[in-house]
# Entry
Amino acid sequence: MGSHAMDPVDARLAERLAELRAERGWSLGELAERSEVSRSTLSRAERAEISPTASMLNRLCGVYGRTMSQLLSEVEAEPAQVVRAADQRVWEDAASGFVRRSVSPPHPGLRGELVEGRLAAGADIAYDRPPVPGLEQHVWVLDGTLEVTAQDVRHRLFAGDCLRLRVWGPTRFRCAGPEDVRYALAVVLP
# Structure
């Protein structure tokens, strides 16, 4: 992946991932077993040698009982009530063509959050499990076309369409194109 400098957010995220594992007293091997992510990949992520993929973060969030926004908010300062558009946390999984913007200020005491997702044409992200079983999601397509598969049912969503579901198992978000898709995702903890 070259010699580019690690993004400060990724560096803080790496540190937080190492802290979470240490807080539980788990070895890298124990975490690898629980998350089904290889020990070497976990080690490299905790040392900020690689930026975790969306799929990997999803698995780790599941192990640690957090949503992705909660985990990402833990690498920030105390959350504010208002987050200006220019200050909203953006995280990118360049390998999959996924860009995630945390729109609402996450707060550990609140159950809901709003996220903007963008998938490049051809992007296809599969999550093998939700970060929190029974997570409620509202997927509202703003631009483009999005295919969401949950519980073996594929939903093809166009601009303006909204899908509400509880996530218990694998899900898949796919942008078949030809244009990119932009959607709002409301997430509510059970």
The beta strands are 90-93, 98-102, 112-119, 124-127, 135-143, 145-150, 153-158, 162-167, 171-174, 181-188.
